[in-house]
Amino acid sequence: xxxxxxxxxxxxxxxxxxxxxxxxxxxxxxxxxxxxxxxxxxxxxxxxxxxxxxxxxxxxxxxxxxxxxxxxxxxxxxxxxxxxxxxxxxxxxxxxxxxxxxxxxxxxxxxxxxxxxxxxxxxxxxxxxxxxxxxxxxxxxxxxxxxxxxxxxxxxxxxxxxxxxxxxxxxxxxxxxxxxxxxxxxxxxxxxxxxxxxxxxxxxxxxxxxxxxxxxxxxxxxxxxxxxxxxxxxxxxxxxxxxxxxxxxxxxxxxxxxxxxxxxxxxxxxxxxxxxxxxxxxxxxxxxxxxxxxxxxxxxxxxxxxxxxxxxxxxxxxxxxxxxxxxxxxxxxxxxxxxxxx
Length: 342
What we know:
The protein is α/β, with parallel strands linked by helices. It has one domain: Aldolase class I (TIM Barrel, Alpha-Beta Barrel). Helix content is 38%, strand content 17%. The strands form 4 sheets. The chain has an 8-stranded parallel β-sheet. Strand 9 (225-226) and strand 10 (232-233) form a beta hairpin. Helix 3 runs parallel beside helix 4 and helix 8 (275-289) packs parallel to helix 10.
């Protein structure tokens, strides 16, 4: 039984109600082009998708993004900084705080309509105040239409990468879509997901039969895996990266734009947030060791907020209420180091 609670207007109605101003749309278009050029290899810059595990409240996210915008001026010749404004939180067991999209106030009950309006307002303010457009995770493909005009990068999570609708919707997005390996870590499954997203598709979406042209910017994200005993097993090391590259090569051109982004947290770090620094450093060293490794590694995902660690309730301004994150000082040093070694 489904008890109806709040009727949600269509995406078209919501976008009309809270539109992205033309001057900010122009900024986003420039940022989109920068990100695409990294994936295709036209640019030698690195993507750095960085920010809180989940955006649970607007004020600290905006402060974080403003700082990132200022830092961007120092590294923009080497890096494309993309703030994480993740508004949907996957839950392993299906319960708990599910992100701003569902709960704009994490201490109160779900209100999806208010959540949609809140995150559109947040994204628009973030672009205006930092000059940077953001990344979000497409946890629910049906929700993507409510933010598709605001994002520069889209992530498909480990629990979603084998889902058919995620793959199909990704094929209609004209932005870089990073598809994470499944929690089991299968490389063939990961590359099958990338292949599906890169190819034209026909399917039902928002009550329409739609067709897509395929998304050549879809690419692989390595986030570590979990074994049968629940242990985190990293997969950012040289050997796994080259295995993924070999899968691209063996596709004989069926997989376009070979590209890998390293997620420095999750099962790669065992959610030990400070390990992200070491992991990024190792990947940077391997880029200098092997030219093929360097060509295929296109960037990093890093979980970071104003204050390091996490908290159960929103007491400390700018501290994660979900997974623990690097604090700002470590983040700034890490980003400057990536720029120096890129």
